[in-house]
Amino acid sequence: MSAASGELARRDGSQGWSMDIEAFFSSGDSWAEPWVLNIELVESLRFGPPAGRGELDVAIALTRLLYHDFVSHGTDGKGRYLNDENVPLVIKAHRAVLERLALKPPTWPFRTFDGPRGFGTYWRDNDMRGSWQARRDCIEQILGPTRDALEELQELEYERRFTKGPSGSFKNLIFAADGAKPEIVLKDAVNNDVEIVRHADSCLVFTDPLPPHGLTWRQMVAWWTKNHQPQADEKTAANSLYRRLYRSLDSWPEQLLMRTYCARYAEEGGFDLPALIPQVYLHYAPYTRRSGKQSGALHRQRMDFLLLAPDRSRIVIEVDGVQHYGRPNPPDEQGRVTHTAVPRLYAEMVAEDRRLRLAGYEIYRFGGWELAGSDGKRRLEEFFTELLGRHEKPTL
Predict the structure, then answer these.
(1) Which domain holds residue 106?
(2) What is the dihedral of CA 143, 149, 152, 156, to 10 degrees?
């Protein structure tokens, strides 16, 4: 690491950040131009990170670079890496990388160092002429929240390596089918891209980046607004999304569970609770037991409900009717239908639970019978209060 890079680390307290800002540059051919920005590399960052680098590393390094250069320009004017021509390219790349991480990019009141719309003009127009500290504070106000969010995300990534979190990475959600079962194919086996080739209109598909702290109801509403009701205000879109999700439920106990949880959205701060996502496809099995190819069949293809919690837990909630463990008998003389327990069904259910738990999911089951009584709603309210308290956003 050069002396300049070491000084940068000391200035912004980022010694733990692994990607050096000099990775964006090549050595120049003179003392006057020691570093030359790799324009091709920076422009490519708008579409993805370079080989061997993660999005988080790139975002942190770009934040460091912008922070350092604008503070340098606003104080002693020395040690800058960028110039007026290429700093807008870095800002565009920075925005793209942050959006892929589902973080809000900073709002820049200037995009160059000098000129009519540069930082110098801005500080002269905003009473910062004689104060280096005021200019540092200005950059801190712009980039500080981004830096803090990245550091928090970095800490979560570090913690995840040493905890029993879910294996794999979030790719997409296929959920809330309210008609025929969607038929899914693996469109690109290399990238694990799936495509719904039949009955796509019966279900919803969420493919936005998963935010660092799970998936909230507010974020789900924003996704719904963008893709289904672009002219709606937040409250109207939320009501519409709720009704659409509710239509995917066909059992009274499941409907009670959803009504009870979603009532919390109307409370103060309710839109920032984890979204309760119904009828989520966990697997897709083109082979069924009826096809004669049962060796490849998957026993449970959907989970009743999924919560993506602030601590990055994936929480599965199942509501078990008698069909989960029994088969109906012919109606008796009074037309009543009884069921006979089938040990194989129960064994399949608990085997799948074991597999999910080993993959890092947290699973809770309700028997439909326990929700059918007069105290079913109270039991659910108490459960969700305890569950949400257990999975609050971690404090660093």
Answers:
(1) 3-160
(2) -140
Is 363 within 8 Å of 318 (Cβ atoms)?
yes
Q: What is the pLDDT of residues 235-268, one digit of tens each?
A: 999 999 999 999 999 889 999 999 999 999 999 9
Same domain, 145 and 186: no
Q: Which of 160, 189, 224 is the last residue of a domain?
A: 160
In a shared domain, residues 247 and 331: yes
Tell me, yes or no, whether 83 and 56 share the same domain.
Answer: yes
Report the predicted TM-score, pTM, of the whole model to 2 decimal places.
0.57
236 and 138 share one domain: no
What count of residues does the chain have?
A: 396
Query: How many domains in the chain?
Result: 2
